[in-house]
Design a protein that fits this description.
This protein has two domains: 45 residues, no CATH class; 124 residues, no CATH class. With 187 residues, the protein is α+β, with helices and mostly antiparallel strands. 55% of the residues lie in helices and 13% in strands. The chain has a three-stranded antiparallel sheet with strand order 3-4-5, with no helix packed on it. A two-stranded antiparallel ribbon has the order 1-2.
């Protein structure tokens, strides 16, 4: 039996037991697969293969970003006036401003959806592309928030927490991108 990157003596599952000295399989259940935190053990007959889960750093990053952007998008879509008031301390008064709030909500939901959809594909260029795009987004949104504060004098109760959140998410993305294109496969 061949297990890439794992010693066979460390593998003991509820469905399959592999003893290193005898290299034999003993089934204690149906020959299916078992999900474990470190990987998935597929078994059929007396053969088995272990697929290690990689990309936990990137997967966690994309999952967190998906949650943050989806929640922000829902807030902007459902309650644009309240969201803008909390961020910038001003009320939306006309219908054009409300429509822009709805558009921002849809855009944030789209970012959350993109992060969610590639979170399991951490070894491909799609995940790297989304992480790079989200790094750009985080940097741009921090710049916009700071510009709104400095030049426009806008400041709501959620402005500085939002700046801090996007600085943190941007730093997390930067760490991921700075490791290079092959780092996604080595998580």
């Amino acid at each position: 039996m061949r297990f890439s990157g794992v010693q066979a003596s460390a593998v003991s599952m509820s469905l399959l037991t592999i003893t290193p000295r005898q290299w034999r399989c003993e089934y204690r259940g149906s020959p299916t697969f078992a999900r474990r935190p470190f990987g998935v053990l597929h078994s059929s007959g007396c053969g088995a293969s272990l697929q290690l889960r990689g990309g936990t750093f990137t997967k966690t990053l994309l999952t967190v970003k998906a949650g943050v952007e989806t929640l922000a998008g829902l807030a902007m879509l459902l309650f644009p006036g309240l969201a803008i008031t909390l961020l910038f301390g001003v009320r939306l008064t006309d219908s054009a401003a409300m429509a822009l709030g709805w558009m921002a909500g849809v855009a944030l939901l789209t970012l959350g959806l993109a992060c969610w959809m590639v979170r399991k594909e951490t070894h491909g260029s799609a995940a790297r592309g989304v992480v790079v795009a989200m790094l750009f987004y985080d940097a741009a949104i921090v710049a916009i928030f700071l510009l709104a504060r400095v030049r426009g004098g806008l400041s709501g109760v959620c402005l500085w927490p939002a700046v801090g959140l996007h600085l943190g998410l941007g730093a997390w993305s930067f760490v991921r991108v700075a490791k290079g294109p092959n780092a996604l496969a080595q998580d």
